[in-house]
Amino acid sequence: MERFFANTQSKVYVAGHNGLVGSAIVRALEKKGYTNLIMRSSRQLDLRDSAAILEFFCIEKPEYVFLAAARVGGIHANNTYPAEFIYDNLMIQCNVINASCISRVKKLLFLGSSCIYPKLASQPLKEEYLLTGPLEPTNEPYAVAKIAGIKMCQSYNSQYGTRNICVMPTNLYGPNDNYDLDTSHVLPALIRKFHEAKVKGDPLVTVWGTGSPRREFLHVDDLADACLFLMENYEGNDLVNIGTGEDLKISELAAIVRDIVGYRGDIRYDSSKPDGTPRKLLDVTRIRNLGWRSKIGLAEGIAGSYDWYIRHLAGSPSI
Ligand code: GDP
């Protein structure tokens, strides 16, 4: 069976290459010397369009696929647009996984999410906890779509002998993150809130919820490194979690971001906003046993993200 790293001329399609995850995978592939990358923006190719996707795969014939395209967002976006979160993700997955099988892609990596695990599962979350209990309501449509994607990858492997692998990243952050306060995740939201409060001299920054939920944060360059590692080193139907193995309270995260940004005002917690799931820490034993672990520390990663935000977005009227 051909190994991924054996040939850097292999034709690799990164679906979702403009997003947080896809752009990091492209950076990681280019760093390793891959030059035959296929990319299409959502304007060029609508991944929800079955006929267009099948035609694209049959003409381009990619050998390897990283399926990083998805409708994603933070707790408020998931609550506000549940229809888009389930429809877009189901359509994207169905089309790309099916077309990959028909066009004989050698191997496909599907990205799920840590929110596929039951809301009250014991921590850290082991891969086998999938479908053992009710999901967190604030992102259930998204999680159901991602679970369908996993089952689709596994079913195609069993029935058609495809080599689909499913990876479950924890909360991600890094370059090309979404800094829109209505739709972003907590980490970019806090970077922006503290930065703007510092610039304007505001005495107070509002953080949603009680500050007590715990979350794990992985830099997206670590995730991309893990995805390439698993494309090379892992086969099978079992899920693989990708995380750091460490979590912290939202209040602790807020204090770290405030220090890195250099904001001197106060923090107020708005408990009228949802906390979401109380804790979401992945068990990373499986990927560590395969020989991979994360490298970028949280403070270092946040400092790099703040720098990226300043260089790319701060003051931009479009966000
Ligand atoms: P989740 O991991 O799916 O719950 O997604 P988020 O990253 O959106 O939220 C994580 C936690 O951070 C939740 O408890 C939020 O209530 C909390 N949080 C605090 N302030 C913010 C904020 O400004 N934006 C977001 N998205 N979450 C926030």
Describe the secondary structure blueprint for this structure:
Elements: E1 12-15, H1 20-31, E2 37-38, H2 50-60, E3 64-67, H3 75-80, H4 82-102, E4 107-111, H5 140-160, E5 164-169, E6 171-173, H6 186-200, E7 204-208, E8 214-215, E9 217-219, H7 220-233, E10 240-242, E11 248-249, H8 250-261, E12 266-270, E13 279-280, H9 285-290, H10 298-312
Parallel strand pairs: 1-2, 1-3, 3-4, 4-5, 5-10, 6-9, 7-12, 8-13
Antiparallel strand pairs: 8-11
This protein binds guanosine-5'-diphosphate.
Residues 74-76, 115, 139, 171, 184-186, 189, 207-209, 213, 215, 250, 273-276 line the site of guanosine-5'-diphosphate (GDP).
Please provide a written account of the structure:
Helix 2 (50-60) runs parallel beside helix 4 (82-102), helix 6 (186-200) packs across helix 8 and helix 8 (250-261) packs across helix 10 (298-312). The protein is globular, with a radius of gyration of 19 Å. The strands form four sheets. The chain has a six-stranded parallel β-sheet, with helices on both faces. Strands 11-8-13 form a three-stranded mixed β-sheet. It has a domain at 8-177 and 217-245 and 283-295: 3-Layer(aba) Sandwich (Rossmann fold). The chain has helices at 20-31, 50-60, 75-80, 82-102, 140-160, 186-200, 220-233, 250-261, 285-290, 298-312; strands at residues 12-15, 37-38, 64-67, 107-111, 164-169, 171-173, 204-208, 214-215, 217-219, 240-242, 248-249, 266-270, 279-280. The model has no long low-confidence stretch (mean pLDDT 96). It has ten helices and 13 strands. With 319 residues, the protein is an alpha/beta fold. Helix content is 42%, strand content 14%. The termini are far apart. It binds guanosine-5'-diphosphate. Guanosine-5'-diphosphate binds at residues 74-76, 115, 139, 171, 184-186, 189, 207-209, 213, 215, 250, 273-276.
